[in-house]
Amino acid sequence: MLKKEFKEIYEKIESLMSQALKNSAHPYRTFSLASIDEKMPSLRTVVLRDFSLEENHFDCHSDLRSPKIKQLEKNNEFSALFYSSEKKIQLRFKGNVEIFHKNSITCYMGPYNPSDTLEEYHPNIPDNVQFKDPTEQDSLSGYNNFVIIRCHFYEIDFLKLKYSGHQRCKFILDKEKINVSWVAP
Asked: For position 43, which CATH number holds?
C-alpha cells in the first residue's frame, strides 16, 4: 500500500496520461522516445496511442522500415520523456519494448522508407490516396509496414517543478509491489 502522498502522485500520473489519450492537444500526447543506436542515444518524438498503468505499458505506432525499429530490435531498452510546461510536470519512464507487427487494422502506406533522403519534398503518402480516403486494398498494402511499439515500463520518475521547491519521486514497479521513494531534485 502506497503512502497517501505517493498514492496521490501515482493517481495524478494515471490521470494525466488518460487525458493525453483523449485530447490530441495535451502536452503528453507527443513525447520523446529514446533508444540506442550503436553506442549513441537516439531520440525522436512519437505519438501516444495507448496507456495502461495497471499493466505497466504504453504504445506508439511506427513504420517497420524506420531506423528506430532496427535499434529497438537490437536493444529493446527504452527511455521516454513526457513534459508539460503548463503544469511543470515531467514524467520519465524506463523499460523494454515489444514490437507487434501485422496485428492491427491501421497501416502505413508511405512509398518511401522513414528517414530516406529525397530529391524534393514528398508527404510520403501514395499519390493515389493523397486527397481521398484509402480503399480497403490501399490499406492492406500499408498493413505490411505498420508496427505497434509497446513500451513495458518498470520505472517512473515524477518531477514537479515549483518555486517553493521541486518535488521528485521514483516508482519502481515490480510484479508483486510498487517501491517508491523521494529523490533529490
From this structure: 2.30.110.10
**CA separation (Å) from 101 to 2, 69, 141, 162?**
37, 11, 14, 42
C-alpha dihedral (184, 161, 152, 112), degrees to nearest 10: -130
Report the candidate in 151, 157, 155 with the shortest Cα–Cα distance to residue 178: 155
Task: State the total domains in the chain.
Answer: 1
Range of the domain at 84: 4-182
Residue 37 to residues 1, 28, 147, Cα–Cα distance (Å)? 39, 25, 19
pTM score of the predicted model: 0.81
Closest CA to 103 of 148, 47, 150, 49: 148
Grid cell digits, residue 102: 501485422
CA-based end-to-end distance of the chain? 24
pLDDT, tens only, 102-130 = 764 344 555 655 556 777 776 666 666 56
* Non-local CB neighbours of 65 within 8 Å, separated by 6+ positions: 113, 114, 145
